[in-house]
Amino acid sequence: MDNQKNTAQSLPENGVGFYEEIAIETGFFILKFNNETNENQIFKREVSSNFIQFHFCIKGAASFSFNNGNYVLPIKENNSLLLYNPQRDLPLDLHVTPNTWVLSVLLPINKFHSFFSTEADYITFLNEENKDRKYYKDSPISPSMAIVLNQLMNYNLHPTIKPLYFKGKAYELLSLYFNRPADADIEQCPFLADEVNISKIKQAKQIIISRMAEPPTLQQLADEINLPINRLKEGFKQIYGDSVFSFLFDYKMEVARQLLATGSHNVNEVGLKVGYSTSSHFISAFKKKFGTTPKKFLMGLNV
């Protein structure tokens, strides 16, 4: 087991916050940072140079401080960071703003390498040429990854099942992280090199999320953000790794799942909130996404 020290500052009295560390396997950890307070919180943990770090900001914003605060690396909502430096330790010094959730995965590089031992060139920093070099990557969180991250932050499980559940979800999260389409890299799309275009695509995402119950058509969305429809479709896929309405479907189903999990809404109410005028259509969509009906999902929460 990794016996490195980890500390978290004491929590303020005017809110709720927590730090939780779950050991998936020997040396393989999930760290959960949840700041529901009105104050910034600081979490610190020693991490040696043989670890690869994945950080996911589910909501809010945070920043990592290095070299006694001389270098600060921000992480924003719906974004991730991958950090690896075989030449020096990279201890966590995480500053978490109010109403922020961050989930991190720490994994020994030799164990990570074993996942891709026959496909090292698929993960560029694992190949022979790069294996001893430091590596950094920031990228958006896909809708599929967001679902798993929320499941790891919010769960209702018997204590005996929790280790198995977290192990499965940790591997699922890593699989989804590296399952990005090859053309999702912004550097490969000259159109997305323009910050104005990137801003418009992000605006499109916010529009469909804010109006998920009655979303605009693709043409209406393109007109609203002042982009040709083909540029909208191409750019959205480049940034978010999915089509506009496939992204929206995943988002709506995750919102529905969370609403059901609160126990404050019945199936019909949740269906209406995410844009389904009939319960049968909502039930069919929910089952397509999660492999079970909303009713069975609710029953499972109460087991």
Order of helices and strands: EEEEEEEEEEHEHHHHHHHHH
Question: Radius of gyration, Cα only, in angstroms?
Answer: 20 Å
Number of β-strand runs: 11
Largest sheet: 6 strands, antiparallel
- Uncertain regions: pLDDT < 50 for 5+ in a row? 1-16, 182-188
How large is the count of helical segments? 10
**Shape type:** globular
Percent of residues in helices comes to 25-40%
How far the N terminus sits from the C terminus, by CA atoms, comes to 33 Å
Account of the 3D structure:
The chain is an alpha+beta fold and 303 residues long. Helices cover 38% and strands 24% of the residues. The protein is built from 10 helices and 11 strands. The strands form 2 sheets. The chain has a 6-stranded antiparallel beta sheet. A 5-stranded antiparallel beta sheet has the order 1-4-9-6-7, with no helix packed on it. Strand 6 and strand 7 (71-76) form a beta hairpin. Helix 4 (195-210) crosses helix 5 (218-225), helix 7 packs across helix 9 and helix 8 (267-273) crosses helix 9. The model is unreliable at 1-16 and 182-188 (pLDDT under 50).
